[in-house]
Amino acid sequence: MIDFESKFGKCPMYYTMSAVEGKWKWIILWEIYKAEVIRYNKLREELQPIAHKTLSKQLKELETSKLIHREQYNEVPPKVEYSLTNEGKTLIPILELMYQWGEKHIPKKE
Questions:
Q1: Per residue in 56-68, pLDDT tens?
Q2: Which of these, 53, 48, 41, lies nearest to 82 by C-alpha position?
Q3: For 16-34, what is each residue's pLDDT tens digit?
Q4: Global pTM value
Q5: Mind telling me which residue stretches traverse the membrane in this protein (predicted)?
């Protein structure tokens, strides 16, 4: 019996989906894209009601996937900023298309 990873491990669609899977990653990328550079607390504020633990985990995964850059300044209090990497910027056309699709198809409240 063939397992999922053996069958789809080299599939470009599977790779893309695994890099940006989850409820928050697309929204995090969108917020960083809109801001260009954003500090952690501002990002968390924009993403309410996201939990600190969830945001931290998603940011680490996006950084591991090389889609965002984390810049830490050794100050008191600590200052951390996030921006899209060049690889992350290649997702901008997809982000914009997703936004446009949502604008057209979001259910209207009556």
A1: 999 999 999 999 9
A2: 41
A3: 888 899 889 999 999 999 9
A4: 0.87
A5: none
Amino acid at 1: M
Report the candidate in 69, 106, 105 with the shortest Cα–Cα distance to residue 89. Answer: 69
Per residue, what are the HEC states of the chain?
Answer: CCCHHHHHCCCHHHHHHHHCCCCCHHHHHHHHHHHCEEEHHHHHHHCCCCCHHHHHHHHHHHHHCCCEEEEEECCCCCEEEEEECHHHHCCHHHHHHHHHHHHHHCCCCC
Under 8 Å between Cβ of 39 and 80: yes
Which region holds residue 50: left if phi is over 0, alpha if psi is between -120 and 50, else beta? beta
Give the amino acid at 86. N
Tell me which CATH code domain 9-105 carries.
1.10.10.10
Residues with Cβ within 8 Å of 43's Cβ and at least 6 positions away in sequence, in order, are: 28, 31, 32, 35, 55, 82
* Residue 21: CB atoms within 10 Å: 10
